[in-house]
Amino acid sequence: xxQLRDATVxxxxxxxxxxxxxxxxxxxxxxxxxxxxxxxxxxxxxQAELTVPVLTLTLDVRDREAVAAAIAGLPPEFAEIDVxxxxxxxxxxxxxxxxxxxxxxxxxxxxxxxxxxxxxRAVLPGMVARNRGHVINLGSVAxxxxxxxxxxxxxxxxxxxxxxxxxxxxxxxxxxxxxxIEPGLCETEFSLVRFGGDAERAAKVYEGTTxxxxxxxxxxxxxxAALPAHININRLEVMxxxxxxxxxxxxxxxxxx
Length: 257
Ligand code: NDP
Ligand code: 8X3
Prior knowledge:
257 residues, Rossmann fold, two-stranded parallel sheet, 9 helices, 16% strand, binds NADPH dihydro-nicotinamide-adenine-dinucleotide phosphate, binds 2-hydroxyethylsulfonic acid
């Protein structure tokens, strides 16, 4: 197995959901952590809770210069990143494309695509130079299966899937691994964010189901990192048993109705 005790693990979006759960899971294995997000207080809480060395970075991954400076300026004891969990991301809105808010689309593209690119680009040279490392991206089932209102969100996650595969092509010949984790329905703050803080609407997404939990996904993330160094999980698609895909939709109404 890959030894994660004393490994340096960098988690984006560690203030909530998968990121916070992944930080806890790696900490349980004795890793040292760099945790980032925009909510400083939550990062401080996580740091206070964990007994391993933790560096907190208040960082908006959309800020290209800030990302580059934060990663270039890591103190030596946190600078050699072994595992990057590219998790920061969001869905904003569920309106059909013809009514969607362009600001929502910008926010998703800027965070889920461009933010992930900025962090990856800053971390990769060190991994390649050390000839070790693992980039674990958070894609989604939405990157493979369309659903009404998924539009730009699904598009950003399809990007993450393809970028993960293309990274593998560039890293061929090195020992740096790349994995795209593709979760389905999972109860975190995801829907609260998607619906602009509407807790009632968010709760309805999970009502009457047994969704995945953040800990379930943290376990998947951890598993891919802990596998022996010669194994690369390219994509890991995970759904709760209560979720599956449906058949093609066919509109049988008489035309014009
Ligand atoms: P949460 O809303 O619970 O967590 C999202 C995290 O991303 C927060 O820590 C938030 O931190 C961080 N984040 C958002 N925007 C930025 C930004 N601009 N800069 C830095 N950090 C940011 O959602 P999840 O844990 O569920 O989602 C994590 C990832 O998993 C996302 O990429 C999401 O698309 C994906 N995903 C989620 C699924 C689900 O059903 N829950 C399923 C499949 C994929 P802060 O606000 O403090 O900046
Ligand atoms: C989150 C899963 O199905 O809500 O990526 O888009 S879904």
